[in-house]
Amino acid sequence: MTETHEPPEPPRPAGSRSAVRSLLRLWPYVRPVRGRLATAAAVTVVASCAGLAIPLALKWIVDGPVAGGDPSGVWLGGGLVLLLGLLEASLFAVRRFVTARPLARVEADMRADLYGHLQRLPVAFHDRWASGQLLSRSTTDLTLLRIFLAFPLTFLLVNGATIVAGFVVLLIQQWVLGLVLLAPVVPLVIICAYFEERYSRAARTAQDQSGDLATVVEESVLGIRIIKGFGRHRGQEKAFAALAGRLRGTELHKAHLLGLLWAFIMSLPELAIGAALVLGVLQVADGDLSAGTLVAFLSTALALRWPVESMGFLIAISNEAATAADRYFEVMDTPVPPQETASRPANPPARETPGEAPQETPRERSGLRLEGVGFRYPDAPADAPPVLDGVDLHVRAGETMALVGTTGSGKTTLTALVPRLHEATSGRITLDGQDIAAMPRERLRELVSVAFEDPTLFSASVGENVLMGADGGGEAELRRALEVAQAGFVDSLPEGTRTQVGEQGLSLSGGQRQRLALARAVAGDPRFLILDDPLSALDVHTEALVEAALREVLAGTTALVVAHRPSTVMLADRVALLSGGRIAAVGTHHELLRTNREYALLMAGDEDRGDAADAPYARHEGGRR
Amino acid sequence: MTTATDQTTTEPERTATGAGPAPDDPFDKDVLPAPKGASRALLRSLLAPARGRLRLSALVLLLQQAAVQAGPLLVAVAIDRAVPAVRRDDYGPLIAVGVAYVVSALAAGLLQYVFIRLSARIGQNVLLDLRGRIFRHAQTLSVDFHERYTSGRLISRATTDVESIRELINDGLQELIGVCLAVVYISVTLLYLDWGIGAVAVLSFVPLRLLMRSYDRRARSVYRRRSTAIAAVIVKFTETMNGIRPVQAFRRERANEEHFAELNAEHRSANVGAMLEMARYVFLSRLVANVVLAAVVLWGAYRVAGGGLELGVLAAAVLYLRRLYDPIDQLGMFLNSYQSAAASLDKIAGLLAQRPGVPEPAEPRALPERRSGMPGREVVFERVRFAYRTGGEVLPRFDLTLRAGQTVAVVGSTGAGKSTLAKLLARFYDPTDGRVLLDGVPLDSLAGPELRRGVVMVTQEAFLFSGTVAENIAIGRPGASRAEIEQAAKAIGAHDFIAALPEGYDTDVRKRGGRISAGQRQLVAFARALLADPAVLILDEATSSLDIPGEQAVQRAMATVLRGRTAVVIAHRLSTVEIADRVLVMAGGRVVEDGSPAELIAGTGRFADLHRAWRDSLA
């Protein structure tokens, strides 16, 4: 079926241009099933015509065999009605059988595309978009679009065609009466145009509001410990109730508009039929019209009632579908940042054999180098200073560099630039001399492994979670990684490394999750390792063990380790101090403690604090400054 | 990830291998067990307040259908009465028919409008009520429940499941009432017009009813399957979007897509199943309808030819029959939305049937006046024992008293029971045996707000709600003035970074505080706790992401602002421990050492070892 959102009758008002354009964007998804949809539409048209022909058959019986007292003619007529009825029933069934699979596929394809696209959108996008809003696009909106393709789209065409065919039949039978019935078309078109615009605005508001509602639900679930810890159910409930109340208001407004539209669509044509009836009776009385013709005429007119009335809600659903399409494409239109200079973003080339790709063997091993790297969040106000401004840093091959800075100085942001979770806004980052901007992300992220501050595990087994970064890693690899992270606790889990964790599995403690996240980062021996405060949730004893194991791994790896503590810093060969958006100092821990005030403060705290907390550092450093 | 318990929360005896969790855990299924008839009772209670409006809307629809169904009858009258009358120059009947037609046309439209408004109001009120119930109920359920039920499922209860009930109420209700009324009207009219034809029409309901029942049965399982499938899709979707950083960093995109494709395909096939069931139903019912219609035409035409039936009556009968069977599809669609709504209702009822593991007291008590003018209160664990309900004792029976105003550090390795202790004190869980007393009052007899004036817990995961920084801090004490909020932030050392944000305290933290670092989030969480001004403050790993100056600011704040309060500090950093008056060392769920930091360090126990290890780690 081609783009048939323009039913001939009543014509779509001019104000609906944008709705049509929104729906036209579905074409790429509809294209593969266009044959099926067209078949369904054609079948439905025939079926409707069969339905319309039944009154004609009746007229033929009444005026012919009945008037002439011909019993065999009556049999023939009855057979005709039966035939038409069978045809109608079968064709309606065919329509549904033909479209069920393809339309379910369209919905699934669109959902899969949205999911795939969202996975590739930059982290900055996800920071801005509440996942409730994304979720409602992926579920409610797509269901609505499928329903639109299954019914309103077909029926806009079919009912339109039925109406036109019906009017042709009417005009042929009795052109005067036919014209009377046509009279309400003009006011109906105007009224539809008026309501459609308002209705689609209200529909969009309602969809957005239910997305917001989903966000509140989600946050209140994810933040349940805080809500409980502070006893703030009341506040959350109030916020939720306010939003839900607003949504209700919008829905009631929609109902008001829809009700008015219905009222007009029901009353006007009926008035015309009434007028035609009176006129027809007069004509029959005058003998200008046969009774059979009037019966057939009115039967046809009444049979058209449903197609005409249905236009009201068909238009309403189409409008909602149009806004759903807008919401869907709003996300789909957000460009995925280019993969690299050469390749296309949407379809990353299938990775060839894992492991050493041929092009990279003879390369200078120059480590990780940041040159004049700047970064500002895309949505930051124009006058805000950039988070990072001219960061120069060289982590030599095989070296471990600690990254230190005050809370909020941009350490985590900086680490996100290396695997290109955020794209540096200026400057250059190279890995062994190769510019990461010119590397396919896939390849880059194979080289660089990260342990995040917030150790997210996925709904999968422990083993799968750990081996996520190590393509094709086996049991040995898993063991080694768990060993490094001192994650021996997994063996006492109900099913060992096959225990399901994450959202749908076993709940692990913060320290346990952090160790698994660390194991995940070191699994598969990445060339470059980025650890964001990897030991923060570990107890002292475990921390010491992890450090010892980690040292061995770090010995052969180029690593950048965000550190808050002297103990973590001690893992590193050198330390870089991030301050004011740039690297303020680089040196060994001891050098910086002596020479850099800010660093000394960060690592040892206030000088004037004489309490026990500082004592170890104080002793260790032998007098700070 | 939403969990940070110190213990594994499911029984360790899971035996199933591979991916499938143990089959007997009700939480593995989407539908939680609910008492029989719970969904029906839920529906009834939702509709109860709308009883008046429901009756009114039924009445409106009754009148509206009368107006709508008048058409063919008027046609019959016009042909059989008005035509001969006009031929006799009597225009009375014609005028009457014309006026009646106009009135019924206008009435049909107007009543339709009234009905839509009315039914929308009923539906929206029900939805508001239902959404509120789900939300409120979810909020009262224990942390333990949330850890097991998972956020994705809860979200799909409150979104897609409510949505399917919305569809039922919005469109279904009108369809059902409308169709029933139309069927009654039409049947009565047909019987009135002609006994024989009427009887045929009524008889035809028998096969139609059978068809409907078979459809109902077959569709039920399909809809249940579909609703479970979409919930799985939602869980995967939210998990991916919330963990987008590791997803991208570990190149999970393709693997995720494969998994998502499986879930998506399951949903798709359930969807197809539902549509095909519908197609089958529509075909069969249409078939019955059209066969009956043909039979009536044949039989009627014979009788008209024989003079036994008036032509107008036959015409009207055929028109009515068409109309009678027109809503068959709609009835199918109603069954459709009814099925999916019923599946959703079951799940919602299952959720609502969950009793809070930590119920509100029936007769709440108030905390006594403070004894010494000191803000802190005494905490007593009295013969407390704790085991997860799935088995596995975490804390064997113990007694413990924390003096008012004491700062107590709890140390021990992962799994020693520190967090469980804290959660019992915060009443995230209730003890299996024994009780926890706050100044002599059992925690489970304190109403929510009173409890939180008593005990507040700051956890390691510092979640920020969307809204401004100020709003996030004000969670500690709703209605706090800006000055109070700023004061709290200053005391904790968070003021500087907040002031440096683009809009200071009014900066929107966006989605889960993406732009605020973990350390800063912990500071905000602290400011929150400070503002809450509780008698007992629990810090569970609450300084893990802070740098040393940040931690020192927190310690200073605790020494000044929180002076005299009872504090329980769980920390791996022994620097935090050293500000404590008392240290509890836990192992295997028991307190194995108890004393002042100096005493313990001087001793030869675990704490002395830990302390030594910690010092070594600094070298």
UniProtKB/TrEMBL annotation, chain A:
It is a multi-pass membrane protein. The chain crosses the membrane at residues 37-62, 74-94, 147-169, 175-195, 257-283. Pfam families: ABC_membrane, ABC_tran. It is found in: Cell membrane. Keywords: ATP-binding, Cell membrane, Membrane, Nucleotide-binding, Transmembrane, Transmembrane helix, Transport. Residues 335-368 are annotated as: Disordered. Its main location: membrane. GO terms for cellular component: plasma membrane. Residues 38-320 form the ABC transmembrane type-1 domain. One of its GO terms (molecular function) is ABC-type transporter activity. It comes from the Bacteria. Residues 368-605 form the ABC transporter domain. The keyword Glycoprotein does not apply. PROSITE patterns: ABC_TM1F, ABC_TRANSPORTER_1, ABC_TRANSPORTER_2. This is ABC transporter. It comes from Streptosporangium nondiastaticum.
UniProtKB/TrEMBL annotation, chain B:
Residues 1-31 are annotated as: Disordered. GO terms for molecular function: ABC-type oligopeptide transporter activity; ATP binding; ATP hydrolysis activity. The chain crosses the membrane at residues 56-79, 91-115, 176-193, 199-216, 283-302. Residues 56-340 form the ABC transmembrane type-1 domain. One of its GO terms (cellular component) is plasma membrane. It is a multi-pass membrane protein. Pfam families: ABC_membrane, ABC_tran. Keywords: ATP-binding, Cell membrane, Membrane, Nucleotide-binding, Transmembrane, Transmembrane helix, Transport. InterPro entries: AAA+_ATPase (IPR003593), ABC1_TM_dom (IPR011527), ABC1_TM_sf (IPR036640), ABC_transporter-like_ATP-bd (IPR003439), ABC_transporter-like_CS (IPR017871), P-loop_NTPase (IPR027417), Type_1_exporter (IPR039421). It is found in: Cell membrane. PROSITE patterns: ABC_TM1F (PS50929), ABC_TRANSPORTER_1 (PS00211), ABC_TRANSPORTER_2 (PS50893). Residues 1-10 have a biased composition (Low complexity). Residues 379-613 form the ABC transporter domain. The keyword Zinc-finger does not apply. Coiled coil: none annotated. Belongs to the ABC transporter superfamily. Lipid exporter (TC 3.A.1.106) family. This is ABC transporter. It comes from Streptosporangium nondiastaticum.
